[in-house]
Amino acid sequence: MWWYKLLKYWSVKDYVTYFITLGALLFGLSVIRLTQGRPFDLLFIGVLVVVVLVPLLALATIQKYSARIDEISNYPTVLSDDFNEGKLLKDGRALVFFYTEWCPFCRRSFPHLKNLKSSDNHSIYRADISDVNNILWNTMAVKVVPTLIIFENGSEVWRRNGRYLEGLGGKDFKDANDTLYTRT
Questions:
Q1: Full DSSP string of 75-123
Q2: Looking at 4-18, 75-89, 97-111, 118-132, which range is the least confident one?
Q3: Which pLDDT value is given to residue 170?
Q4: Which of 35-39, 44-48, 73-77, 103-107 has the highest mean pLDDT?
Q5: Residues 74 and 57 in one domain
Q6: How far apart are CA 140 and CA 73, in angstroms?
Q7: Which pLDDT belongs to residue 1?
């Protein structure tokens, strides 16, 4: 689906802006064509269909495959108060998933995160850093979301940063899971 790859990074605001601009442009072109006494020809109608249909198909595809925040609500949340100078103030082994609500790559990672389960040996937490002023961006040196960090008795022992315009994939979460179960 080439239209999905083309427009999958657009937000709802981008779509609204696109359709308002497109509507104004098409209205202006329609008025000009009608005042010149030229009817709508096949080429004009074809361009109109492509310009409107492609973003609509992309939006429908994105809505179908977008995950919702409530899909990961079963994991406890950690806040900036749960960290001190880059250390997690929790005992034992823990995986923390750093994400933002506005990041499409984070939402795409939710199904992978849901496959991870807490056990007696480790816990899984989520850290919502949607606020760009959240101190965890600097404290934990998060440069890209999503980011996975494993802590052992508060100290970071493993990290996987999301890749720019990709995020994290299934292999990253498998590596995190393997690390959680094999680390001594």
A1: SPB--GGGEETTEESSSSEEEEEEE-TT-HHHHHHHHHHHT----SSEE
A2: 4-18
A3: 93
A4: 73-77
A5: no
A6: 22
A7: 46
Separation CA 124–CA 102 (nearest Å) = 21
* Residue 82 burial (CB count, 10 A): 17
- The DSSP output letter for 142 is -
pLDDT at position 101: 85
Q: Which residue has the tokens 């498998």?
A: 174
The answer to whether 95 and 134 are in contact (CB under 8 A) is no
Q: How far is CA 23 from the centre of its chain?
A: 28
Give the residue numbers spanning the domain of 21. Answer: 2-65
- Tell me the two tokens of residue 69: 């925040």
Number of domains in the chain: 2
Distance CA 4, CA 59 (A): 8
pLDDT at 10: 60
Claim to verify: residue 48 and residue 109 sit in the same structural domain: no
For residue 125, give the amino acid letter.
Y
- Would you say how long the chain is, in residues? 184
Longest dimension (CA), the chain: 80
Neighbouring C-alpha atoms within 13 Å toward the C-beta of 72 = 27
